[in-house]
Every structure is written in structure tokens, then in C-alpha cells.
Amino acid sequence: MTETTESGVAVSGPALPGPDAAFFLDLDGTLLEIAARPDAVVVPKELPDLLSRLRGALGGAVAVVTGRGLAVARGYAGVPDLPIGAEHGAVLDPALPGAIPLPVPPPEWRRAADEWAAARPGTLAEHKTHGLVLHFRQRPEAEPEALALLAELMREGDRGFRVVPAHAAAELRPVGADKGGAVRRLMAIPPFTGRRPIFIGDDITDEDGMAACAEYGGYGLRVPDDFAGRPALVRAWLGRVATAVSGNGPG
């Protein structure tokens, strides 16, 4: 099938899945366009309705799995009872049995991150419950310094964290927290159990989720490859999925 960009250029997209699909969706760069700063994201007004339609078509088997914090992710999605794996799976809502206790960054690490960003205009320190992120999209030359700071913090002792690269950012994340874990835990419960999972993401942090979907006979779709790097095309395609699965029109 094809979708069309605003400029009228036809873009090939993946085939539509069947009614046994389950979706695990990243936010930034997938459902939402990347912004210069993480707090400058613009959420399309149609996104909550799209997610609600997709959930209705698939018996509720739709979840957001994101690096964002839970409150931010839920606010962006705009669907109150939508399952969300936040902070790369470190936080899951609804909470499920079997959660592994995860560490939190000590206060001195958070202070060091804030001081680093304050000394470098155009950067930002983002704090999460179980991690922190140094953003440098507006100042890409700061990447080596960001990685050096996180490496320095890690040398203070093994506190159960690892450094993970992201889109114009460097993240300190608990060992054992990844999007694949969120997929596996949700696939163990209704309405996801027994379905064919599909993970849609745009960068390296989504690969764990895609690998987990493959374990259940599913697969991953990469926004740069399958949707020409355009979240608008992802949303349009998901709308077609909802329509086709609901039987309300052609795919």
C-alpha cells in the first residue's frame, strides 16, 4: 500500500496486519515528530482518537512503550486507560506482578546533570524516576562532554545503571530496563496474549522491543525504513489499520 506526504509524494508502506495484531508504539519520532527540545513536542489533536479507534478495533491490544516518564507519556497519548511502558519499560502502568525493583539516580548525580546543562546553553537535563537524560540536539558538539559526564558518574561505583545513546541525547538507565521487557510482560496478560505483536519505533532504543515481538511471532517496523522517517505516515497507516480491521472500509 502507499500513503502520501503533504507534498503529494507517494511513499510505500508495510502491508496491513490482520485482526490478531497487537501494537506496541513508541512516541517521539514514531507517533510524534521530534522537537528541538523534549518539552517542545507538539501532539496532534487527533492522536487520542486514533489510539482509541485502534484499541477498539484490536480488542484493546495497543500499548505505548516509550522512554518518556509515565505522566508525560500518558498526557501525550491522551487515553486514560491505555497501557504504557514508560522509561524504557522501567515503569509499567497498569502495574503487573513480577516487577523487579530498579535503582534511582542518587541526588548528587541529578545535581551534576543540572550543573552540566546550566553551563551549556542549548542543552537540557531531563530527570526520570529511574534515570536521567542529557539532551544536546541544539548543541551537538556537546555530545562527547555528555558521554564523559555519564561515564564519570558510573565510575563512582556500580549502582546498577548503564549509558545508552539516543536521539541527540545520552541516557543513564537501569540495567535490565528495556522496551523488550515491557513487551514481554504485557504479552503475558489479556488482551495481548495470543496475538501477533508489532512494535513501531524509530531508533536504537526500540530494537529490544522489536526483538521481543519476534519471540511471539511478531515483528518490528522502523520509521526511517518503513515510513520514510515520517510520524505523520505512521499515524495515517495506523488509521488505515483501525478501519480495515473494524471492517469499515478497504485497507
TrEMBL record:
- Pathway membership, UniProt: Glycan biosynthesis; trehalose biosynthesis
**Name of protein:** Trehalose 6-phosphate phosphatase
Recorded source organism is Muricoccus roseus
Supply the EC number(s): 3.1.3.12
Annotated family: Belongs to the trehalose phosphatase family.
Catalyzes what? Answer: alpha,alpha-trehalose 6-phosphate + H2O = alpha,alpha-trehalose + phosphate
- According to its UniProt entry, what is the function of this protein? Removes the phosphate from trehalose 6-phosphate to produce free trehalose.
Against InterPro entries, the record matches this protein to:
HAD-like_sf, HAD_sf, OTSB-like, Trehalose_PPase
Membrane-spanning ranges: none
Which of UniProt's keywords are assigned here?
A: Hydrolase, Magnesium, Metal-binding
Q: Which is an annotated GO molecular function term of this record?
A: metal ion binding
GO biological process entries = trehalose biosynthetic process
Q: Which cofactor does it need?
A: Mg(2+)
